[in-house]
Design brief:
Order of helices and strands: HEEHEHEHEHEHEH
Number of domains: 1
CATH class: Alpha Beta
Mean pLDDT: 84
Number of helices: 7
Radius of gyration: 18 Å
CATH architecture: 3-Layer(aba) Sandwich
CATH topology: Glycerol-3-phosphate (1)-acyltransferase
Strand order of the largest sheet: 1-7-6-2-5-3-4
Shape: globular
Strand content: 5-15%
């Protein structure tokens, strides 16, 4: 997933988003999505024995931004199993270079964005998707992180900014177990139990015109607290803390909780 830094506080409407970024699903796409989602749900249920807590907190019809913690590449496909509604998500532009892979990603809700940039077109597309009533998935931590703590210094303002502009709630979610199932750098996917906890929606403030930086910062911190609460509960129910950073800053070796061999 891309880094949704959201440094700008202007309405990102100065550029027109590519029509493919936020386009509405066709009937054929809808059928294809249902088939793909059902197959993936069965696979994830069998392999990860996943459990969803707080599913009722997801709005059934209203648009929203689902904001999970990010500890594994599995967070996107497994996290998408919390609802049968198609949730849109941003992906690295390079993933669309393969025509077949790009088509599949588009059907399941993805659209490309250039990594490492604020990408006004992508932010505008996010807003269009939400205004059309479709939910989105955005990772406030940007890239994959490590450990049981959602760090304030790693939170990006993009999800909060888009939520304010579109007037939709942010829904925090904790995911525990995916980092054990597929640790960073590992090509293997282990059959480890996964627990997902969905928190209560966080409503953004109503803002007219320019979005104040203070409003975005305050909402981002409120979201971080909500994500941490969900993550704590998910780790508790899973019976294990998140894996620590295998290569922490300064070369220090982490020997804290989570370094032990997991029990599947």
């Amino acid at each position: 997933m891309t880094d949704q830094s959201g440094d700008q506080t202007e309405n990102p409407t100065g550029e027109t988003a590519d029509s493919d970024l936020g386009r509405k699903m066709s009937l054929v796409d809808g059928v294809a999505y249902r088939v793909c989602w059902s197959a993936l749900w069965l696979l994830c249920k069998f392999w990860f024995r996943f459990r969803v807590v707080g599913k009722a907190n997801l709005p059934s019809e209203e648009a929203y931004i689902l904001t999970p913690v990010h500890r594994s590449y599995l967070d996107t496909p497994v996290g998408g199993m919390v609802t049968a509604r198609r949730q849109r998500f941003l992906g690295k532009e390079s993933l669309w270079r393969n025509r077949i892979a790009g088509r599949f990603l588009t059907i399941v809700g993805g659209f490309p964005v250039e990594r490492g940039t604020a990408d006004r077109a992508a932010l505008r597309a996010c807003q269009e998707v939400l205004e059309r009533g479709e939910p989105m998935v955005m990772f406030p931590e940007g890239t994959r992180q490590h450990g049981p703590v959602v760090r304030a210094d790693l939170m990006h303002a993009g999800p909060a900014f888009v939520a304010v502009r579109a007037g939709v709630p942010l829904v925090p979610m904790g995911i525990a177990g995916t980092d054990y199932a597929m640790p960073g750098g590992s090509p293997m996917v282990r059959p480890v139990r996964v627990v997902m906890v969905v928190g209560e929606p966080i409503r953004p403030p109503v803002v007219e015109g320019r979005v104040p930086r203070r409003a975005v910062d305050d909402l981002t911190e409120e979201l971080r607290v909500g994500m941490q609460a969900c993550f704590d509960e998910a780790q508790r129910l899973a019976g294990r803390p998140a894996l620590p950073d295998p290569d922490p800053p300064g070369g220090l070796v982490s020997e804290g909780p989570g370094s032990e061999e997991p029990v599947s």
